Amino acid sequence: MLSSATSAFHFVHRNRTYYLPFIISPQYLPLWLRPCYTIWLCVELLGHLLTVLSIILFVTVAWKSKAFHINMLIINTYAVILLGGTNLLTRLFFIQIELGTLQIGNFIWPVHFLKNCAWLGIYNYVVYATLERYAAFRFATDYETNRRVWVSATLIFVNTIITVPVAFLLIFDLLNGAIYSALVCAMSNVSCLAFSRIKARSVINEQRLANFTNVRQYTVSHRWQIKENIRLAKKFDD
User: Dihedral angle at the C-alpha atoms of 175, 176, 177, 183, nearest 10 degrees?
Assistant: First the structure.
C-alpha cells in the first residue's frame, strides 16, 4: 500500500489502507481527464436530484394511498444505481490514475461491498417485483387496502437479508458469481412464466367482468388490479 494518498477520503483498518473514491482531488488527475471528471460530477448531481425526486414521489404515493408501494422503491433503486453507480465505477478508474498505480487486490473492499449490495439488490428486485405482482393477483379483492403494506415490506426485508450476506460471500470468493448470476437468470425466467400466468388469468377475469351485468361483486380494487396485471404483463411480453 501507498504510505500516503492524494485522495480526499481514505481510512486505515488493521494496518490496511482503504480508499473510497467518493471525493477525489482533481488537481492530481491528468489535464485531459479533468473535463471528464467534471462531467461525471454533473452526472452524479443529476443522479442525486433524481433520487431525491423519486424519494419524494415514493413518500407522496405511500402517504396518499396509505400503502408501502414496492414499485416506487424499485424506481428509487434504479435512479441510485444507474446514475450514481455508473459514476462510482468511473471513479474507480480515476482513483487508479490519481494514485499512479494499477492495483488489483483488496484495497477497495468497502467499495466492492457497496457495489455488490447495490447490484444484487437490483437482480433480486426482478424476482421480488414478480412476487409482489403475484401476491396482488392472489389477494386482488383487498390487496390495495389491506395487504400491500405487509407484502411489500416483507419482500424488501427478505431481499435485504439475502443481499448483504451474498455480497460478502461474493467479495471473499466464497460464492461463485457466475453461479449466482445463473440462479438469478433462472428465477427471472420463472418470473416471466408467472407474469404470463397472471396475464392469462387476468384476461379471463376481465372477460367475466365484461359479461357480468352486476360487476359490483368485483370490488373496485379487484377490477383495478386485474387491469394493472394485464398492463404489466403486456409490457413484460414486449
Answer: -90
